[in-house]
Request: fold
Amino acid sequence: MSVVFMSGDITQISCDAIVNPANSYGYMGGGVAGAIKRVGGIEIEREAISKAPIKIGKAVVTTAGNLPCKYIIHAPTMKQPAMQIGLENVKLATQAALDLAVKLNLRSIAIPGMGTGVGGVPIDDAAKAIVKIAKDFEDKFEKIILIDRNDEIVKSFKNFINNQETTAKN
Reply:
């Protein structure tokens, strides 16, 4: 029933699912995807590729390999690996990930800064969009965790969560 933010490593978080800001082919080379593959195991990438192509605005679920979560939700922010993208792709991927998590009856999910790495989306824009969409799903989960290793992204998550809570009270 809450959207929270934290600084940390998404590959170490214990929850039902973590979100991989993927590409449509399922390749897990760098950024969050690369970290998930390094820690969780190559079988995650193999399973994601077997479900490709994944359209932007859709998401697929795979097992989590050696990670402490149960599932990985792969929500493409870009068609090809390492593409520059626009904010709309961040919104579509976040929405798709949360829609799939609801269909799977998950209670907790962790979402990183989406599109803020090689995608090139400005951190504040991405964080604001992710927080707004997460807040729309707040009543469908026990916890939505917005997590990143980048302190600037975490600070933006915090600012936009606090802004939304202040606005809701007024």
Observations:
- The chain has one domain: 2-169.
- The longest strand covers residues 71-78.
